[in-house]
Structure formats: structure tokens, C-alpha cells
């Protein structure tokens, strides 16, 4: 078991705290506590949205700053990734937290249909977000919801809008977007290897497909994402009690495929990030 796997935990998205997902962390303190437990369970990268007091998704840089401060204090070296997606505001508001200089930020390089809306990423907005990430030394995670986004990311790397090496997350299982399909997944992986041979990648499945993508990613040499943003169940009949429980399940899967969770130092090296600050 010598090949490390970076485990990303997406602790909360836009889901309200309902009876069917009571463990979704909402407040700053809950998010820091949930991230710490997931870190202890084996996650080395956290994907962050933040919430307002009324539980709606927030774009407030001050709230991102509070969560980042808490995670840096309690999870030494953990890679912090802010979401710049549509849930983080509109237009340039979506990148308003980038001056906080997280380690990474998500970047979708095109638009896609979601269950009840269009996840709109205009060329102007994509270019602006990419430029802000370059300006503040933030590594993008390319969120690829279809094949065109992989080609666009490779093009942006070639012309200098993105810094090599790329890190790409293949997202499958969003209703109205790319379904979970093994042949397509392998085509994604092979296409990325052809276009950007030095790129790293993660598989992200939604809902019941989360662990399917984890298995495929572990088998093909990639990395894994889990967490209550994407899925609230350990299996068909069992609600996950926490983000840490979902991370623990991926750790178990790592062992099945001869893999192991990456350490903080290994995750940073694999993603070409600087070592964690000390002190």
C-alpha cells in the first residue's frame, strides 16, 4: 500500500439542514469541528462553502476568513479549497474571497445544466476567476462536468491563463449533466493524460454514486472526493452521521485497492503546492 490517495472532503453545500441530513455543518464552529474530525479520519483537502445565519449559502469573504482561520489552527497543513461556484454568489462576487489566499479554489471552465437551473460560467467570468487565482497564488481545481471543460482547461494552460500542472475533478451523477458511466470516465482520464500528461485528477460522484466514483478513481490511480455536500448516506439504508464517517469509508476503500490516504506533506507535493506554513 504505497500509492497515496488525496481524500477531499466537501463538508457542506447548499442543502438545508433537514431531517434527512441533520449532520450537515452550518455555522463556522460546526464547519471547523466537522473538518477537524474529517482531517483526523484521513482527509487532507477540504472543499468549502460558507453559510449565513439563516443557513443560506454566503459569499461573504469575512465568513470564509473565519472558517479558514479555524481550519488552519486545528488542522495543521490541511489544504483549503474555496468554492467559486454559483452557490458563492453571482458574477465577480464569486471570487471575492480569493484575496484570502486559500491553497486552492474550484474553477468550472464552462456552463452546464443542473437539476433546476443553468450553472452559468461565461468566458469572461472564467477568465476573470482564473486571473484572480494567478494573482493571489491560488491553485485552481478544474471542475469538469463534461468533456469540453477538460479541453478548455488544457487550452487555458497552454496559453498561460492557468498554471501547470492542472488538477481536474471529474464530476458525474448530477441530474441533467454527465451520468455515471465507466466508459466515459475512462475516456475522461485518458483524454486528460493525453492533453496534460502531468495533471492530477479526482473523481467525484453525487449521491449513491459517490462510492462508485471512489472505487473507479482508486483503481485507475486517481484521488477521491467525499462529504455531505455530495452525499448523506453510507449506503442505501444508512445515513452518514458525519463527514468523518464518509471519509472513513473512503479510507476503507483505499485498503481494498492497495492504496492509502495521503499525508498532508504527500498531498501538497502531489498537487505541486508549497509545504504548509509552520508556527
Structure description:
This protein is α/β, with parallel strands linked by helices and 279 residues long. It has one domain (3-270): TIM Barrel. It contains 8 helices and 16 strands. It has helices at 28-41, 61-74, 123-136, 147-158, 182-195, 210-220, 243-256, 264-270, and strands at 3-5, 7-10, 45-48, 50-51, 57-58, 79-82, 104-107, 112-113, 118-119, 139-144, 167-172, 200-205, 223-226, 233-235, 238-239, 259-261. Strand 2 (7-10), helix 1 and strand 3 (45-48) form a beta-alpha-beta unit. The protein is globular.
Keywords:
single chain; 279 residues; TIM Barrel; eight-stranded parallel beta barrel; two-stranded parallel ribbon
Give a brief outline of the structure.
This protein is an alpha/beta fold and 279 residues long. The protein contains eight helices and 16 strands. β14 and β15 form a beta hairpin.
What proportion of the residues is helical, as a percent range? Answer: 25-40%
Write the H/E string, N to C: EEHEEEHEEEEHEHEHEHEEEHEH
Average pLDDT confidence is 94
Global shape: globular
Total number of beta strands: 16
Number of domains: 1
Strand ordering within the main sheet? 2-3-6-7-10-11-12-13
Structural category: alpha/beta
How large, in whole angstroms, is the Cα Rg?
17 Å
Oligomer: single chain
- Low-confidence sequence ranges: none
- The number of helices is 8
CATH class: Alpha Beta
End-to-end gap: 32 Å
Amino acid at each position: 500500500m504505497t500509492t497515496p490517495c488525496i481524500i477531499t472532503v466537501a463538508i457542506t453545500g447548499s442543502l438545508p439542514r433537514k431531517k434527512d441530513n441533520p449532520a450537515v455543518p452550518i455555522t463556522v464552529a460546526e464547519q471547523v469541528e466537522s473538518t477537524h474530525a474529517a482531517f483526523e479520519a484521513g482527509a487532507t483537502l477540504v472543499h468549502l462553502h460558507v453559510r449565513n445565519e439563516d443557513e443560506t449559502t454566503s459569499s461573504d469573504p469575512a465568513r470564509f476568513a473565519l472558517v479558514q482561520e479555524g481550519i488552519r489552527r486545528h488542522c495543521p497543513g490541511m489544504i483549503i479549497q474555496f468554492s467559486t461556484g454559483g452557490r458563492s454568489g453571482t458574477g465577480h462576487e464569486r471570487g471575492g474571497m480569493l484575496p484570502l489566499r486559500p491553497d486552492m479554489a474550484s474553477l468550472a471552465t464552462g456552463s452546464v445544466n443542473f437539476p433546476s437551473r443553468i450553472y452559468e460560467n461565461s468566458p469572461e467570468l472564467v477568465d476573470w476567476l482564473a486571473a484572480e487565482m494567478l494573482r493571489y497564488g491560488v491553485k485552481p481545481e478544474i471542475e469538469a462536468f463534461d468533456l469540453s471543460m477538460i479541453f478548455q482547461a488544457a487550452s487555458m494552460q497552454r496559453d498561460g491563463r492557468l498554471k501547470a500542472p492542472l488538477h481536474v475533478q471529474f464530476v458525474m451523477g448530477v441530474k441533467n449533466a454527465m451520468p455515471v458511466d465507466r466508459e466515459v470516465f475512462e475516456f475522461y482520464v485518458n483524454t486528460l493524460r493525453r492533453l496534460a500528461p502531468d495533471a492530477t485528477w479526482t473523481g467525484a460522484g453525487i449521491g449513491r454514486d459517490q462510492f462508485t466514483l471512489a472505487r473507479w478513481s482508486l483503481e485507475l490511480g486517481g484521488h477521491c472526493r467525499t462529504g455531505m455536500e455530495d452525499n448523506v448516506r453510507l449506503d442505501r439504508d444508512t445515513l452518514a452521521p458525519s463527514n468523518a464517517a464518509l471519509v472513513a469509508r473512503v479510507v476503507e476503500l483505499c485498503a481494498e485497492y492497495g492504496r492509502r490516504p495521503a499525508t498532508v506533506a504527500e498531498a501538497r507535493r502531489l498537487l505541486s503546492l508549497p509545504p504548509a506554513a509552520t508556527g
